[in-house]
Amino acid sequence: METSGVTTLLERKSILADVIRILEETTSDWDLDFSGGITPDTHLIADLWFESIDIVELVVALEEHFERRNLPSEKLLMVDGRYVDDLSITQTVDFLFVHLNA
Fold it and tell me: Is residue 70 one of the residues assigned to a domain?
């Protein structure tokens, strides 16, 4: 990110807050049996019942929010050529922190 020629490092706390807000908006009308709110330890599939299309929509929402097209989402979604079984909010934030600040 650049502001008036000065590079701005996005902080993890800010990224976390944005990701949680996006997830809360995304799941606000879902009938989830999930209490405690979305935290860094929340998992997309195990806790929020995300399906593959929901993960794709989340990636698109994150790219739009952070104004970054073509994030290397395969690095988030795949390990050793296989799709990951689940993702925590922390893993998502760590991925964004690295790639938004690259």
Answer: yes
In a domain, residue 20? The reply is yes
Q: What is the per-residue DSSP string for the chain?
A: -EETTEE-PPPHHHHHHHHHHHHHHHHTTS-----S---TT-BTTTTT---HHHHHHHHHHHHHHTT-TT--THHHHEETTEE-S--BHHHHHHHHHHHH--
Longest CA–CA span in the chain (Å) reads: 47
pLDDT tens by residue, 30-42: 877 777 789 999 9
What is the number of other CB atoms lying within 10 angstroms of the CB of residue 15? 21
Whole domain around residue 42: which residue ranges?
11-100
Q: How far is it, in rounded angstroms, from Cα 85 to Cα 61?
A: 21
Instruction: State pTM to two decimals.
Output: 0.85
